[in-house]
Amino acid sequence: MEDSYEMYDVVIIGGGPCGLATGLALQERGIKYVIIEKEAIVNSIVNCPLDMRFYSTSDRLEIGNIPFLSQEARPSRAELLKYYRLVTERQDINIKCYQKVEHISQNNDSFIVHAMDRNGSNINYEAKMIVISTGNFDHPKRMGIKGEDTSKVMHYYKEGHPYYGQHVTVIGGKNSAIEAAIDLYRNGAKVSLVHRKETVYKGIKPSLLLDIRNFIEKDRINFYPNSSVEEITDTTVSINTPEGSVTIPNDYVFSLIGYQPDTKMLQIIGIQIDSSTLIPAFNPDTYETNIKNVFLAGVVTGGIMNKVYIEDGRFHGLKIAEAIKQRLI
Known about the structure:
Elements (H helix, E strand, L loop, with lengths): L3 E10 L3 H12 L4 E5 L5 H4 L30 H14 L4 E3 L1 E9 L2 E8 L4 E11 L20 E2 L12 E5 L3 H12 L3 E5 L11 H12 L4 E3 L3 E5 L3 E6 L2 E6 L2 E4 L8 H5 L25 E3 L13 H4 L2 H13 L1
Parallel strand pairs: 1-2, 1-6, 2-3, 6-15, 7-14, 8-9, 8-14, 9-10
Antiparallel strand pairs: 4-5, 5-6, 11-12, 12-13
Helix pairs in contact: 1-8, 4-5
């Protein structure tokens, strides 16, 4: 099959909220663009727990000045997915889903983005400029231990029902890990929570604090502070604790220790990356990288200790679109 070929002013890689917002900003300025997304739109939200309610209020998750009204101040996963679907449809955002970018090459003054769809067909896009808005949710942090790659180890949590009566170990101490541990317990799982720090009571959502404290203090969830998992087998997990190594029964593991950006694509096209923080080089006024006509939007700008969320990243596209408009005049 011959490769298809399409040409644009801008190709946006990544169809999350920040990629969609960038597309809207370009669209408002009459700039021809396309968004390429390797899975579904806002796929990071798709992978959130089914019953999750976001900590941000609905107005802080809006894009393109399009109002988002939820039943409660903090929207549910289902409400947020519906909002981004409606925005995409009603604003006729030009997005191609289930196309994975394989590599990027240069052709004189333009870029060729080489993508592959779910059927294995190659689709090439030529553009004068590129915006990379890939996020980091697809790249979980690794522990580097034996057994980490087995099928019983998961990095995303959906719901607790399938784990009723099972021994489940949750690794991590931030909101996602605490929410998973609470939900698993409520669905009848036998839960152990392992965290490398002394406590999980600091820095989590206030709505989680009362439950997790109650469950830990009443031994409903077995908590291992100042500890780390050192090995995972088919039936057990070994934990390095201050009192020594402990081995507990285990059926499933949720390693929820965070995510980090995949910098391979950035480095291949020459974007400079700070080796300690993984923060790429970019101009904070335009979000253009050290490579001319290549821009970054959203979480990808935050590095390994990311502090960029939808609330902030949704505005990156406005600066990018203004810079691109001036360049195309």
